[in-house]
Amino acid sequence: MNILKILNFTNQSQKRRSFVKMFLLSVAAIAIPGRSGSQEKPKKKSGWLLADGYDATEHLWGMGVNINDCIGCGRCVAACKEENNVPRLPFFFRTWVERYEIEANGRVSVSSPNGGYDSFKPELSDKQTIRSFFVPKLCNHCDNPPCVQVCPVGATFKTVDGVILVDSDYCIGCRYCIQACPYGARFLHPVTRTAEKCTFCYHRITKGMSPACVENCPTQARIFGELKKGASPLVRFKRMHNINVLKPNLNTEPKVYYANLDMEVS
Amino acid sequence: MEDIVQHLTPLLKEVSGYIFPNEIELHWGLLIVLYPYLTGLVAGAFILASLVKVFNVKELQPTYRMSLLTALAFLIVAPLPLLGHLGHPEKSYEIFLTPNTSSAMAMFGFVYAWYLMAVLLLEIWFDYRKDLIMWSRKEKGLMKWIHKLLSLFSSDVSEKAIRFDKKSVRVITIIGIPSAFLLHGYVGFIFGSVKANPFWSSVLMPIVFLFSAIVSGIALVLLIYMIVTPMRRKPIDMLCLNKLASYLFYVMIIDFSLETLDFIHRVYESEESIHIISELVSGKLFVSLVVIQVLIGMLIPLGSIAAAKIFKLPDELKKLIYFVAAILVQMGIFSTRWNVVIGGQLFSKSFRGLTTYKMTFFGLEGFLVSFIILIMPIVILYILFKLLPPWDEARQQVT
Ligand code: SF4
Ligand code: SF4
Fold it and tell me: Do A1 and A77 belong to one domain?
């Protein structure tokens, strides 16, 4: 299978190429000689390490999260940082865990110290907490992703198997996608100075493994899998629970599905 | 990595409520405040010049060429803050090579290029062509050659050619007005179309941007006119100044109405985000929004210009009032940009907390660089005034 096709690049880059040609002809003054070679970049793309025989058209990936099962241990956060080389600083996360505490008087307090990396200390105040739960967060791999829409150079893109990725060779670091993501799922990597976020561990899932966070969750609060195949655990998960997504009113159509999500979570 | 830790760690303590962990870093800083400010001045100055041409406002003739050159000087600098804020400025050409057609930002290069090449430079060239030829005929040495070069070595000053120049200027002006609207309205769209951010997301955003741009452009030309004319030891033309002030006043009324409408609309609809936004406006943004933008930058100048007109004050006092009002307006518009860009990032998209922006002094995103970028157009304008004197006498000399 052609990598280009997998990444859905062909069409776009052709469209782009003819557009570019027209543009270069009409406004020759802005053309930068010798640069048009960057058009060929997608062809050389090998960074995604697609395993032989992986056919993206046969998959559509998603994730389920069962709030009731999450114990806030933060193992997923640590595993993600380890797996994806995310800076070990409290400002950069591909996934993080939030704690919600709902008090008797209706007050809600949310916290996520260091993204939940070090798990949560029990709250020792005299708050009258009536309900408390943990919510793991990550990129929702929106089916209608605002981050893809706004990226000026097309560095953020949607693969045919439904994963939203950032091509760091292309990313110019304008940060528009970070502004456009309603979930705070993105950050600018302090060293590469390009946009980053959860990839569903694309390098793993295309080899038939599950994402690092899913692998490391001790309670299986995260379920990863196929959305198109009837027999997949994710489809079953969606059938068995009342499912919600985050900020449904924004019509981003997330592919991370939460079971037992409280209305306070946004 | 070290500096980012140093920069961000103290901010952790400044957070109130809950923000997403990735939101500690504020992504668009002072440079992005400058960008809409600068393009706004360009669009505003150009629209002023166009008004003179299209509606043939005789009183404003002395500011026509001045406005065009002002627009050019600021337009040349406008892309710098954008480039400076990129993580990878060296890759910015990708915007031209592989633009993503659904991205508002990708259109920047094209709108900019169109405006610079097809509108501003052409209009200036046609307007100055005859003068350039006449100047170069009289002059000697370097200036002769500069003017010859700028006229692109054309030499036809026949009546027919001059008529053609005039006609071209008119046509370009007519294309130019929607282009100027596009240039700045589109900057508003960059913010207004971000549905993730309720503070930005508004259809009114491009229109508010546009009118505040015209306000800032007129105020800037007024300032330049009032500073440059005495420096040339010429009398200030009160007719011209009064007209400028009237225009400024009317456009400010429109701008203010639009902003009020936006405000009322938000409060009335009272959406999910209203709590966090009102916390923001009554807290961290109070000084820059309520005090500087609305009171100092809008109400006081409006009131004082109105007073100057109603009470028929003596010219000297009027001049003083206009001058101060125009400076206040500039402050106001700058903080308008600040409040949109920075203010819009101070609250979390969880709508549960606020963060802080800490300006640095050094560094690309720091105060110093922004200050230099703000000074640059003034230097460029000085050079342009030397090369292409916009004064009426310069024009009359040759005829
Ligand atoms: S969650 Fe954010 S980063 Fe992920 S696809 Fe949606 S908009 Fe893009
Ligand atoms: S930061 Fe990179 S990925 Fe994000 S919008 Fe800009 S160029 Fe695209």
Answer: no
Q: Are residues A19 and A117 in the same domain?
A: no
Domain assignment of residue A250, yes or no? yes
Can you tell me the distance from the alpha carbon of B57 to that of B67, in angstroms, rounded to the nearest whole number? 14
pLDDT tens by residue, A19-69: 444 444 434 333 333 333 333 344 334 445 566 678 899 999 999 999 999
User: How many Cβ atoms from other residues are within 10 Å of residue B371's Cβ?
Assistant: 13
Residue A110 and residue A205 share a domain? yes
Q: Is residue A9 located within the same domain as residue A85?
A: no
* Residue of A168, A170, A172 best to disrupt the B interface, most CBs of B under 10 A: A172
Neighbours of B397 (CB within 10 A): 13
pLDDT, tens only, A219-253? 999 999 999 988 899 999 999 999 999 999 999 99
* Host domain of residue A132: 61-141+201-259
Distance (Å, whole) CA B307 – CA B318: 9
CATH number at residue A240: 3.30.70.20
Residue A180 CA: nearest ligand 1 atom is: 7
Count how many pairs of residues, chain A against chain B, have C-beta atoms within 8 Å. 167
What is the number of structural domains in chain A?
A: 2
- The finding on whether A246 has its CB within 6 A of some atom of ligand 1 is no
User: Based on the structure, what is the number of domains in chain B?
Assistant: 1
Shortest Cα–Cα distance, B351 to chain A (Å)? 8
Q: Are residues A132 and A220 in the same domain?
A: yes
Residue A127, in any domain of the structure: yes
One domain for residues A239 and A208:
yes
Same domain, A24 and A68: no
Indicate whether A266 belongs to any domain: no
CB contact under 8 A, A87 and B27: no
Residues B333 and B215: beta-carbon distance below 8 Å: yes
ipTM: 0.92
Q: What count of Cα atoms within 13 Å lies in the side-chain half-sphere of residue B368? A: 5
Instruction: Give the span between the Cα atoms of B376 and A167, in whole angstroms.
Output: 35
Domain that holds residue B150: 2-394
pLDDT in tens, B249-268: 999 999 999 999 999 999 99
Which single residue is written with the structure tokens 């060429």? B65
The residue of A150, A158, A170 whose CB has the most chain B CBs within 10 angstroms, and thus the best one to mutate to test that interface, is A150
Which residues have a Cβ under 8 Å from the Cβ of B153 and sit 6 or more positions away?
none
Contact (CB<8Å) A90/B351: no
Among the bound ligands, the one closest to the CA of B105: 2
What local confidence, expressed as pLDDT, does residue A1 receive? 36
CATH number at residue B282: 1.20.1630.10
Interval B42-55 mean pLDDT: 91
For residue A113, being part of any structural domain is answered with yes
- Residue B399 within a domain: no
Nearest CA in chain A to B88: A172
Q: Confidence band (pLDDT; 50, 70, 90) for B55?
A: confident
When CB atoms are compared, the residue of B18, B100, B352 closest to A153 is B100
Element containing residue B353 per DSSP (H, E): strand B353-354
Q: What is the pLDDT of residue A188?
A: 97
> In chain B, what residues touch A176 (CB-CB under 8 Å)?
103, 105, 190
